[in-house]
Structure formats: C-alpha cells, structure tokens
Design brief:
heterodimer, A: about 110 residues, mainly beta, 4-stranded antiparallel β-sheet, 11 strands, globular, B: about 120 residues, 6-stranded mixed β-sheet, about 0% helix, about 50% strand
Chain lengths: ~110, ~120
Amino acid sequence: DTGVSQDPRHKITKRGQNVTFRCDPISEHNRLYWYRQTLGQGPEFLTYFQNEAQLEKSRLLSDRFSAERPKGSFSTLEIQRTEQGDSAMYLCASSRQGAHYGYTFGSGTRLTVV
Amino acid sequence: AQKVTQAQTEISVVEKEDVTLDCVYETRDTTYYLFWYKQPPSGELVFLIRRNSFDEQNEISGRYSWNFQKSTSSFNFTITASQVVDSAVYFCALSDDYNQGGKLIFGQGTELSVKP
C-alpha cells in the first residue's frame, strides 16, 4: 500500500493557461474522488469515478473542468483557460467501495493562478 | 440536503488543556457515516475516526475521544491534555454511502492552536 499519489504538488500558472493534474490511487481501490479546497474552507466534492465510469459531477465543475480515469487506474483533472478563482488545493481520494471502507487522501496539488 | 456545521472557526488553548471540537450534521438518511480528519500545515488529510449511524458508542483512542449523539445530530471530538503537535485544522465530515455515491461532505473546519 503506497498511498494515493498526486502530481505535481505545486503548480503556478498564468491566467488563461490549461493545467492538468494527476492522481494515482491505491491499486485495489475502485472509487476515486476529486475535491477542491480553498483557503479557510473545507474540501468540496467535485467528481467521482467508480472504475472508469464518472458517476457524479458537482455543479462546481464548470465546463472548463474535465476529469478522466482511463482503464480505471490513475485519473487526470484538467482545467482549461484557468481563472484566478481556480486557485485552490485539489485533493484526490480513493476508496475500496466508499464510506464503509474509508478513504485515503493524497497530499494534494496546490494551484496558483497569477 | 446533507450539511456539516463546525461553528468554532478557531480555538486557542495552552498545552495540557482539554479541548472539545463541535460538529453538528444534517441528513435525512438513516444510514450514514461520520468522520474526523486532521489537516496539518503540510496539507494532507489524516484520517482519525469513522463512525456509522448505527453505532452510538463513544470511542476513546489515547488522548482522543469522540461523543456521537444521534438525538442532537452531533459528533464532537475531545483532545485531552493537548500538545503542541495537535495544532492543525480539524474537519468533521459526513457520507451517505448508499444514495450519494460515498462522497464526503465536509464542515468548514476548526483551526486548533496549542501554545506551549
């Protein structure tokens, strides 16, 4: 069990640029979640996958956001045409089958849009 | 709708004091899970406890204890004899695994500062 890995840890980008983050879950976990955390707030749910299927998207996930989980393994979260309001910590979590088994969180990717 | 409220934004105590972090939740579901996480300055969320809605027994783990009361929809967390290393942001969270896909709904967090 190597934990949940997220890459990069930090990303600084200019407004209008596209960014992509990667999350590698624990290998036997079939659920993968993305959360966004802004300063002074709790994490907010963005989307989740069960295997390769994206089963739910929050209304926080605007059209500029897209997430994929090809082959049910790692996942990517892409933000197109970044805005300053996208600056946040993006957290990934994985789980064997949801709340009953608990969740393992990655260290997050901190995005700063300048 | 599900909601978690942590009314205490910041708490400051002196080392060795006991401190209780409050958590009140709202849900219409009869089956749900409650969690507490610790977030140190490094940013990673550290799991502390998970409780399901059918288990109202209080739990103690070392200096940590949790009081779950369904009648008041509360799941409070007490640190006994606090230490400087307990300084962090603590989050209470709720999950309905059956109807909501297992996503976590977090409170806004309580920042605990333990001074020497």
